[in-house]
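Re-running the complex after MR caught last week's input typo. The corrected sequence lines follow. Everything else is unchanged.
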Amino acid sequence: MDHKELWMRETDRDHRDDYRRWLWLADEPDAVTAYWGQGVLWAFGVGEEMVAAALMLSSEHGTELMVEIKNIAVAPLWQGHGIGHRVISDLVEYYRVRGYRIMVVKTANSSLRNLAFYQTAGFRMDSIQRDFFTASHGYPTTLIENGIVMRDLVRFTRDLSAEGTL
Ligand SMILES: CC(C)(COP(=O)(O)OP(=O)(O)OC[C@H]1O[C@@H](n2cnc3c(N)ncnc32)[C@H](O)[C@@H]1OP(=O)(O)O)[C@@H](O)C(=O)NCCC(=O)NCCS
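Corrected-run output:
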């Protein structure tokens, strides 16, 4: 695929339910319900086909604008072809030119592929919230990935003001 063809579109709030299953690719349904309805949901596609989605939450910290990738998912058949990296770079560019300074994303200690993906996409580890993956956060059962219990939340950040220095 020529990645120049990838389009990025803000989804219409009235039709957001049509996209819920996309976010289930990345997170547990109960957890998605907790933040469903917040932020901006972006759809990405090639021609008529939607290939990825990302839910972005903005916040202000003093004078600093921050944006979090709350959920990101590429359609299974399109994974491993560079779409995820392209989605990140399009989002970085979109929010950077609008004055956002920090982009945040969080994943689980057990999600080895995602831990690699975010680092190759320009993020650095920032902090760890231990014992996050519990019922109170929408994770009612013990999940195991790569033989590792999903337990701790790893927070990554990317400094958008330092673009071009990767
Ligand atoms: C995580 C996820 C968003 C990544 O998207 P993706 O489209 O598969 O990512 P990419 O193809 O850009 O990169 C994945 C790998 O493919 C490889 N790749 C293959 N072709 C590539 C290309 N043309 N350009 C860049 N990388 C390419 C890279 O080596 C990359 O490896 P890395 O992660 O070690 O850098 C996707 O796998 C996904 O939706 N997973 C399920 C949901 C999920 O877990 N979301 C994250 C929740 S925290």
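None of the earlier attempt is carried over here. The domain at 3-161 is CATH 3.40.630.30 (Aminopeptidase). Residues 25-26, 72-74, 79-85, 107, 114, 116-117, 120 surround coenzyme A (CB under 6 Å).
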